[in-house]
Amino acid sequence: MTYLAKPRLHHPSLTVNKVGYTRRDYEGKISTLCAGCGHDSISASIIQACWELDIEPHRVAKLSGIGCSSKTPDYFLGASHGFNTVHGRMPSVLTGANLANRELLYLGVSGDGDSASIGLGQFAHAMRRGVNMVYLVENNGVYGLTKGQFSATADQGSKSKKGVVNSDSPVDLVALALQLGATYVARGFSGDKAQLVPLIKGAIGHGGAAFIDIISPCVAFNNHAGSTKSYDYVREHNEAVSRIDFISAREEITTSYAPGEVIDVVQHDGSSLRFRKLHADYDPTDRYAALSYMNAHQARGEVVTGLLYVDPLATDLHVALNTSATPLNKLDAAALCPGSRALDKVNSSLR
Ligand SMILES: Cc1ncc(C[n+]2csc(CCOP(=O)(O)OP(=O)(O)O)c2C)c(N)n1
Ligand code: SF4
Ligand SMILES: [Mg+2]
Question: Is 136 in the pocket of ligand 1 (CB under 6 A)?
Fold first, then answer.
């Protein structure tokens, strides 16, 4: 693998955010992905979102599996914590890290092969347990890194670059996330940064399991006619359910849209998601309506994008387990191991 570090020189007049960093401080190494790969646009959107939210890079932990998508954490947030796990195992490693230190912001970056094929079980359990994380799948319908085999998200009937037709039913990670209990569920497109950046910001502000499936064309192996994950196909079939703006807790909420076209959904941390509805009857807080809306549009060959579902009052795994407010990695040995008397007490309470 090649690692190309970016020069550290900054122009002195670059704009800094509220924590004193330029946008360049959120970048990583120079990408070694194919020119035009959708994954690079997603990295740029993550950089934009974190810079605009004034997040201190050392407060972020990026975890990934294996694949071109899973390589991308090397290309953004170079000053953050990072861990490249085994193929499909990002969710369990992230869950462990999150339980040990609840104070970091966890970004899980994965691919469709990583999460819908080998890692499907891991994906499912992170969602159903409500791990407080931003789970991003960079979905190109193929195993890009191993040269373009169909992944489990490839649509039935779609064609490979060599013309082979996929006969298997696809796994729809958005539908699964909705069914499994994820509390923030969205679909984006790497070619639509105006939609993707606020979706990522909203997921960062969310206090539970936030999942974004991002269609991200693989220009080397899945960008031809007959593919349903190509730039042309997604642009032609994109059905955006809403446009969201993310307003952080510190900003004043003002409205400039006509009533009925806009709703504000306030999350636990005080941040607000402002929906500009493109479909007047769409309710982003109804999990089951989101599922049937998506299924109905998918049957017509449309790719529904936008924030499909949010539970603004979501809680996470720490609440469910009633863990200590002080992160476990900050507790001393006496607190972590209170001795045999405390253990006897716990055991007798269970008899
Ligand atoms: C345990 C294991 N099995 C298989 C592989 C081979 N392998 C590497 S990447 C990959 C698929 C990557 O696909 P995806 O997650 O969709 O990422 P992309 O490259 O498309 O972004 C596979 C099967 C591996 N590295 N480890
Ligand atoms: S092979 Fe596909 S997924 Fe991998 S870097 Fe190239 S375009 Fe991107
Ligand atoms: Mg892939």
Answer: no
- Of all protein residues, whose CA lies closest to atom 3 belonging to ligand 1? 87
Q: Can you tell me which residue has the tokens 């476990």?
A: 328
DSSP assignments along 158-213, one per residue? -B-TT-PBP-SPPP-HHHHHHHHT-SEEEEEETT-HHHHHHHHHHHHH-SSEEEEE
* pTM for the predicted model, two decimal places: 0.94
Q: Using 50, 70 and 90 to split pLDDT, how confident is the model at 1?
A: very low
In the structure, which protein residues have their CB atom closer than 6 angstroms to any atom of ligand 2?
33-34, 37, 39, 68, 140, 144-145, 218-221
Atom of ligand 2 nearest to the CA of 140: 3
CA distances from 250 to 2, 23, 40, 43, 54 (A): 41, 20, 30, 25, 11
d(CA 43, CA 54): 17
* 210 phi and psi angles, rounded to 5 deg: -110, 125
What span, in angstroms and rounded, lies between the C-alpha atoms of 190 and 134? 16
- Note the pLDDT tens digit of each residue in 109-122: 999 999 999 999 99
CB 213 within 8 A of CB 195: no
Task: Please tell me the number of the ligand nearest to residue 66's CA.
Answer: 1
The confidence score (pLDDT) of residue 257 equals: 55
Substitution site in 219, 222, 224, 230 for ligand 2 pocket (most atoms within 8 Å of beta carbon):
219
Closest ligand to C-alpha of residue 140 is 3
